[in-house]
UniProtKB/TrEMBL annotation:
It comes from Acetobacter aceti. This is Uncharacterized protein. InterPro entries: Gp80-like (IPR056908). Pfam families: Gp80.
Length: 197
């Protein structure tokens, strides 16, 4: 099973946490898949390198790469990581070296925006650009429910998705009482709340 299957995009003129996708002529996201190796923490792109088409207008200074779940213009990056900056002008292309396509995931669980979820083989930090779930060797957007009412912000989840979200919550909780009177924590694998006396 793939760790991630989606699209690779180029981010320009900024750090991986905020850079926007290139929109130059001839630019298009490239389909990509990552397969887990060994214990699933190390994942490798199915293709050893990835090349983008030729620029028909300037693409800007490529400063980061990003993974997208789909190829729609409105989708936001799931995760992003910095690369050595390179300006792409008319007639040039951009090829991604293999070391940027080998990922080491730090741990499973839920990651918030701007959390580091791992590194590339070259040591560059993989940064979550939206809430991300890494569970059972698969990376997905963290709140991947089906919208029950378009635009309402509410959603429905399958029992499997709800179980996954609860597991992620439990994994992220402290195992001792924080003592602040408001925090959830795990007490012998039971959900507890801190009570201030």
């Amino acid at each position: 099973m793939a760790f991630f299957k989606g699209y690779l995009g180029l981010l320009v003129t900024g750090p991986a946490t905020v850079a926007m996708e290139s929109s130059g002529g001839g630019y298009a996201r490239q389909a990509i898949a990552f397969t887990p190796l060994g214990d699933g923490r190390r994942t490798l792109s199915v293709s050893q390198s990835c090349s983008f088409g030729y620029a028909t207008t300037d693409w800007g200074a490529v400063t980061a790469l990003a993974l997208y779940t789909d190829n729609t213009a409105t989708s936001e990056p799931l995760v992003a990581w910095s690369v050595s900056p390179r300006t792409i002008s008319v007639g040039q292309t951009y090829s991604v070296p293999a070391e940027y396509l080998s990922l080491l995931i730090q741990r499973e669980g839920f990651f918030s925006v701007n959390d580091q979820i791992g590194t590339t083989e070259s040591g560059t930090a993989l940064i979550a650009r939206q809430p991300v779930s890494v569970y059972a060797g698969i990376m997905t957007p963290a709140m991947a429910g089906n919208s029950s009412t378009s635009g309402s912000g509410s959603g429905t989840f399958t029992l499997s998705q709800l179980n996954q979200l609860l597991s992620q919550l439990m994994q992220g909780l402290p195992t001792s009482d924080p003592g602040d009177g408001t925090s959830l924590w795990l007490n012998a694998n039971l959900l507890s709340i801190s009570i201030k006396s």
